[in-house]
């Protein structure tokens, strides 16, 4: 093998190593952002109620405004932790989708 051939082989292996390191780093970053268990599911808030589908829907609709307000105060939360689980989550996602046009917003033809 000549010197150029050796450089080519070593260079291509380093490229593969860099890609693998980048992929592993991205996997670690994404897995660190995974949601954890909510121990407050099904337990009533100090006010006495558990948030359900309809409150989740409302919270999804007002989510952008609530998020901005929550940046400046500790008394407003973006997401109600005292909820009934999947139904609240479904309402929240549906409400956020309604606000932003859902899946149909990007499918419209523009003229």
Written account of the structure:
This protein has 111 residues and is an all-alpha fold. The chain folds into two domains: 1-34; 39-111, no CATH class. The chain contains four helices and no strands. The chain has helices at residues 3-32, 53-61, 63-70, 86-99. The chain is elongated. The model has no long low-confidence stretch (mean pLDDT 77).
Strand content: under 5%
Helix content: 40-55%
Low-confidence stretches: none
Average pLDDT score: 77
Shape: elongated
Tally of individual domains: 2
From the structure provided, what is the oligomeric state, counting identical versus distinct chains? Answer: single chain
Rg over CA atoms: 24 Å
* Structural class by secondary-structure content: mainly alpha
- The separation of the N and C termini measures 60 Å
How many β-strand stretches?
A: 0
Largest sheet: none
Summarize this, please?
With 111 residues, the protein is mainly alpha-helical.
Write the layout of secondary structure elements.
Blueprint lengths: L2 H30 L20 H9 L1 H8 L15 H14 L12
Helix pairs in contact: 2-4
Keywords:
single chain; 111 residues; mainly alpha; 2 domains; 4 helices; 55% helix
């Amino acid at each position: 093998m000549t010197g150029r051939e050796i450089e080519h082989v070593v260079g291509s292996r380093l490229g593969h190593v860099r890609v693998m390191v980048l992929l592993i780093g991205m996997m670690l970053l994404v897995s660190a952002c995974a949601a954890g268990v909510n121990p407050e599911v099904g337990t009533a808030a100090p006010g006495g109620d558990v948030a359900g589908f309809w409150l989740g829907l409302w919270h999804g609709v007002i989510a952008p405004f609530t998020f901005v307000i929550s940046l400046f105060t500790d008394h407003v939360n973006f997401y109600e932790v005292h909820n009934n689980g999947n139904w609240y989550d479904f309402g929240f996602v549906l409400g956020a989708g309604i606000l932003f046009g859902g899946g149909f917003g990007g499918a419209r033809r523009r003229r």
